Amino acid sequence: MISFPRNQRGATLIEVLVALLITAIGVMGAAAVQLNSVKFNQAAKFRSNAVFLANDISDRMRANRVVALKGDYDIAIDDDAPTGTGAVAVDLREWLGEVALRLPAGDGAVIRDDTRFTIRIQWSEGRLEKTREGSAPSLQTFDFVTEL
Q: Is residue 109 left, alpha or beta, with left meaning phi > 0 and alpha meaning psi from -120 to 50?
């Protein structure tokens, strides 16, 4: 039978446990990095959608410039979509529908100042944020300024 010095008994077991602990911490760190990556990717997708949607209504207004300059495209956050059958009503209804579809709790506004338009898009990233219990998630806002 092999005899081990008294002070080395169990040393290998401790080394294995330490290696296992270090590996477990590394795996948990990698999982946290992956989770944050998914979260930031989703937030970037929302911002990209906001840019796309702002360009969409901007192009619609450019196609109907005279009417846009009269203020027919003006709409505020929380306003209902127009119900008419005219080109402006259809444009705004389709656009607000896309904003609501592509962004969580999404809403949009068109604010006119002479020939300068601010297109504001808001949405909630509530699923992605850590909020205190009872507090509402903050709204993200994207403003796109253009001139016709």
A: beta
- Sequence-distant (≥ 6) Cβ neighbours of residue 8 within 8 angstroms: none
Phi then psi for 103, rounded to 5 degrees?
-130, 135
pLDDT digit string (tens) for 90-140? 999 999 999 999 999 999 999 999 999 999 999 998 765 555 666 666 889
Q: What is the pLDDT of residue 66?
A: 94
| Per-residue burial over 84-97, b = 16 or more CB atoms within 10 Å of its CB, e = otherwise | eeeebeebbbebbe
pLDDT at 43 over 80: yes
- Half-sphere exposure for 24 (CA within 13 Å, toward CB): 6
Contact 117, 144 (CB under 8 A): no
Residue appearing with tokens 């450019």: 62
> Using one digit for the tens of pLDDT, what is the confidence trace for 51-98?
999 999 999 999 999 999 999 999 999 999 999 899 999 999 999 999
